[in-house]
Design a protein that fits this description.
Layout lengths: L1 H15 L3 H4 L2 E8 L10 E4 L4 E6 L4 E6 L4 E6 L5 E7 L4 E6 L4 E6 L5 E6 L7 E4 L4 E6 L3 E5 L5 E6 L7 E3 L5 E6 L4 E6 L4 E7 L8 E4 L4 E7 L2 E7 L5 E6 L4 E7 L4 E6 L3 E9 L2 E9 L6 E5 L4 E6 L8 E7 L3
Antiparallel strand pairs: 1-28, 2-3, 3-4, 4-5, 6-7, 7-8, 8-9, 10-11, 11-12, 12-13, 14-15, 15-16, 16-17, 18-19, 19-20, 20-21, 22-23, 23-24, 24-25, 26-27, 27-28
């Protein structure tokens, strides 16, 4: 696998005529050890005011709490059963954890880490988002549903989908939720006021797991695994705008509105960075080598940082890597 990565990088630099130092759009600035966190890593959330990051250590059945200021792990939420999704609530300073094994979506006090509330979604609670406008929590779960709950654990609504939901994004200026449903081969468009699917947009690739939204330019970004590519859709019509080859095993995807870049973290051991030249044209800016299995990440615009979860694998230690975007 390492040979494949270096071969891909050699081909990229050879065909473009550029040297690595001229194209690296991200710079590694820090690595934070996650001692004792074994197994697969999943998604993350950040507490900006408290300068903390919450990481779902799925294989360790825990949530790791990292002080970004101190640069070290400071707390851990135990006895989570395969945590997958994490969301932070700024106002009340609560952290929400969705667990795959028991289907629970739990609300914790982010300081004491004491459990405050929970909703039982029975099976495979996965990605989770908090909507500050309505104070609702949305969680994808089971064989095909998007649930809405409040911070006291009360279930408010369910939207039935045609398969298990992966990443989804909420409009800030509208009422739609865009949901990746890879087993159904489409993106479901959900009206979160009427709690129903209003459209499904076919995806001409398999494994559309990660998603990002550029709401200002009406562009939806999908990371697909087979074939490995970045797809760009018009967020008004669902029509394909562009597609670009990408690295394998993509699992997280973010749009950087300041730099007009797209970051795609891939388990193959690379972060693909794409540049939006305009809303209809995109290009690959670079491939940043990382570590095998490091496929989940979190871009925080307010901190101008991309955080990457690296699992323990052989001599490779479990750690949180901090990357800084390099100016063009």
């Amino acid at each position: 696998m390492k040979v494949e990565i270096f071969t891909a990088l050699f081909v990229f630099f050879w065909t473009t005529g550029l040297r690595p130092e001229e194209t690296a759009p991200l710079r590694l600035v820090k690595s934070i050890s996650l001692l004792g966190a074994e197994g697969r890593m999943d998604h993350m959330a950040v507490d900006l005011e408290g300068k903390r990051l919450f990481l779902a250590a799925l294989g360790n059945n825990s949530v790791e709490v990292v002080s970004l200021e101190a640069g070290k792990e400071v707390q851990r939420i135990y006895q989570c059963k395969e945590p997958q999704g994490v969301a932070f609530v700024p106002g009340s300073k609560e952290v929400i954890v969705a667990c795959g094994k028991d289907g629970a979506c739990r609300v914790y006090d982010s300081l004491s880490l004491k459990l405050k509330a929970a909703a039982d979604y029975k099976d495979d609670a996965d990605n989770v988002r908090f909507d500050p406008a309505t104070q609702r929590v949305f969680v994808g779960y089971g064989k095909g549903a998007l649930g809405a709950m409040d911070l006291k654990g009360a279930k408010l609504a369910d939207v039935i989908l045609e398969g298990h939901p992966e990443s989804f994004q909420l409009e800030k200026k509208g009422k739609r939720i865009f949901v990746n449903v890879p087993s159904a081969g489409h993106v479901a468009v959900v009206d979160r006021e009427k709690n129903r699917v209003t459209a499904t947009w076919p995806v001409d690739a398999k494994g559309n797991f990660p998603m990002a939204l550029d709401e200002d330019h009406h562009r939806l970004f999908l990371g697909c695994r087979s074939p490995a590519q970045l797809l760009v859709l018009d967020a008004e019509s669902g029509k394909k705008v562009a597609s670009l080859p990408a690295s394998g095993d993509a699992d997280d995807l973010f749009y950087d509105p300041q730099a007009k870049r797209i970051y795609l973290s891939c388990g193959e051991g690379l972060i693909d960075v794409f540049e939006a030249m305009d809303p209809d044209h995109f290009k690959l800016s670079g491939k940043v080598p990382t570590a095998l299995g490091a496929r989940t990440s979190l871009f925080v615009p307010e901190l101008n940082a991309l955080y990457l979860a690296v699992p323990h694998h052989g001599d490779q230690r479990a750690e949180l890597r901090v990357y800084e975007p390099v100016a063009k």
